């Protein structure tokens, strides 16, 4: 059999396969191209959440996890699982990076700042890890005012409005331990931007360093005031918590220590660069820019982030990208800004550099406040660039359409339907071009999102789902097996390209 070229892996980010039709933008959208491929070609569904992708049972998948598993061709046990396991087994409190940060503060008389996403969403962080850090601080004899929490509020990976409960739980823990105070609260929209919208990051920074922005003497009161203005968790303005005398509870100053307790890198990089890069140029940090900080990241974020790493990465050998390079095949990775790290670094098992024979194409995401304002995003630009590149003779293409996920997070059903319809139009253009060249497309997703835009309560749903994802192979005359997972996609690509599957790649081809 002639080897198809190219083999194009088209990832429809956030495009889950859910039977319930109510509030299901994937179902409600007019998507003639996808429907035609589903009906014409062999298809199945894949599990994209929980233990099948290295997460705890019942935990929804996400883009980082999905692309890691897809590219690695094996179940990759995630940092959430790894850190939580270390807590259960008692290793967390012996982590030298944490202990050194605490010792630094005790020796120098400086403050320890804990910041990250305060929720149990499990996508970027988990509140249980913060609680364990507070227990560790108590055991190590830290004072109440010496430990300061800067709470980034979620409302995206969990239901909007739940921040009040997380903050209440956090305050209760601090009162029980006699250690820690909340110094700032702010929506992840500001502190966790990943698209170089530095004006957002600057607001977060200036609240934590200069005490600038709205203020309140009580974190919960600040939240309630924001809710009354119809500004929910994700978008809460960086707010400074102050003492009764009007002074800030605690700002980040010279020689302080910071532990960034998010485990997922992509939305933790920018804020970390602000505090760890001497040559930072994103914005003017001002004359009070803290010097000589002791900075700890929970996991390895990026080569562009300094400091110490609590949980160092384990290497992933023989990912799909590496196998293609070993066989001297040309590969293309293409996405818009929001998902570019996913088709590059995450897909390559955390490797940031290109493989030999790999080309990367980045299409800029639109500069809008939220993507329901422009649900088309840059999908057409991605499709146009991909169609043009197909003529250059690539053997493998990894392409991501971001719309169903990014617009799904806004909670707007109408916008999510438009997002899916946009993706369908662009999907048709890419698939037809690939087929015209004698290639094969694998059409799938990394996790669900737009398939559930309305909760059973009638409220908007902004989170991912645990639903399976579709998997289509545009080649007639083959049979696909049931029960597949994301880790089975790379072995399927390897089989289509008639390559030897390395032993590290423990997934199984979905093509029988």
UniProtKB/TrEMBL annotation:
Q: What region holds the BPG-independent PGAM N-terminal domain?
A: 83-302
List, from the UniProt record, the residues annotated as the active site of this protein.
63
Keywords on record: Glycolysis, Isomerase, Manganese, Metal-binding
According to the record's subunit comment, the protein's assembly and interactions are: Monomer.
* Catalytic activity, reaction form: (2R)-2-phosphoglycerate = (2R)-3-phosphoglycerate
Q: Which family does it belong to?
A: Belongs to the BPG-independent phosphoglycerate mutase family.
- Cofactor, free-text remark: Binds 2 manganese ions per subunit.
Pathway(s) per entry: Carbohydrate degradation; glycolysis; pyruvate from D-glyceraldehyde 3-phosphate: step 3/5
* EC numbers on record: 5.4.2.12
Annotated Pfam families: iPGM_N, Metalloenzyme
Q: Which residues form the Metalloenzyme domain?
A: 6-500
Q: What is this protein called?
A: 2,3-bisphosphoglycerate-independent phosphoglycerate mutase
Q: Does the keyword Transport apply?
A: no
Q: List the cofactors.
A: Mn(2+)
